[in-house]
Amino acid sequence: MVGLGVGLAPPRPATVLANDGQGAKPTFKASVDLVSLTAVVRDRRGQIIRNLSREDFEIFDAGVPRPIVEFAPAEDGPVSLAMLFDTSGSMGLSQNLEHGLAVGEQVLGLLRPAMDEVAVYAFDSGLREMQGFTTDLESIRRSYRALDAYGTTALYDAIGTVASRLDERPHRRRALVVVTDGLDTASRRSAAEVAAVASASDVPVYVVVVGPEAASEVREVRAGFQAEPAGPFGHLGNLAHWTGGAFYAGRGPAAASVAARAILAELRHQYLLAFESAGPGWRPLDVRLRRRELTVRARSAYQATPRPVS
């Protein structure tokens, strides 16, 4: 496994899983050691499963089973989404930036005006906020259509910073979508450190690689990861997997459409769970299903920081 131990961000303390405005839902109460997480469940054909109950899930905190104290089903709700575009010099080659913007268009086409909120960030050696969080999708389109490619690539640094900003958003269904050619030349953080930041905040990271080395068809990395992953995009695949997100690679309209639809389908149909941490410190997390024919994806660790009760 990827070793994680530095660059950690503290998790949300307790005020989690509130009503998303889509009908009556459980309100997740404040607690000094309550840990929240989102989970996506699929069957063997890859179809999202929405009809599970609390009793179908198991949570293991550092190998110890923990009771699920709060649960909300996989109902359609508003999302908070950050799109992070690579605008380094290599994105100016082989129409990489054009392919990346096509992914943005597909994602925006699936969002709901006045309900879903989205922000746009761009990075090369530094990070720029092109448009803060808004439900005005036309403002989003104007912001990323002005992007240009130049500079070096601080990919992992940018992911870590934007994931931390998503931690402040009101909706529990939230994610970071990273569009890149997959190269990093200037980051101070490693992929493992950034995975720790995003995982501690329960922000799934979805990576879409659009460079010429990308597969001709969209693919999703589901396998486990190792300290020395194989392939040019191994570290990005590991980062996505660790945070409960997914990795896609492909170029062209069909690839962009498949990736966008898969990402939004997952975000809208996440299960929301919470348990009491046995903390403190950085702790491995394992979410399982009692029905072995199904698969679940959720973050794989969290940072527990006990706080005094006020």
* Count of strand segments: 14
Radius of gyration: 18 Å
Estimate percent helicity: 10-25%
The termini sit apart by 38 Å
Q: Structural class per helix/strand content?
A: alpha/beta
The H-and-E topology, N to C, reads as EEEEEHEEHHEHEHEHEEEE
Q: What is the molecular shape?
A: globular
CATH architecture of the domain at 79-267: 3-Layer(aba) Sandwich
Strand portion, in percent? 25-35%
Description:
By secondary structure, this protein is an alpha/beta fold. The protein has a domain at 79-267: Rossmann fold. It is 23% helix and 27% strand. Helix 1 (96-109) links the parallel strand 5 and strand 6 (117-123). Helix 1 (96-109) packs antiparallel against helix 2 (137-145), helix 1 (96-109) crosses helix 6 and helix 4 runs parallel beside helix 5. The termini are far apart. Residues 1-32 and 221-230 have low confidence and may be disordered.
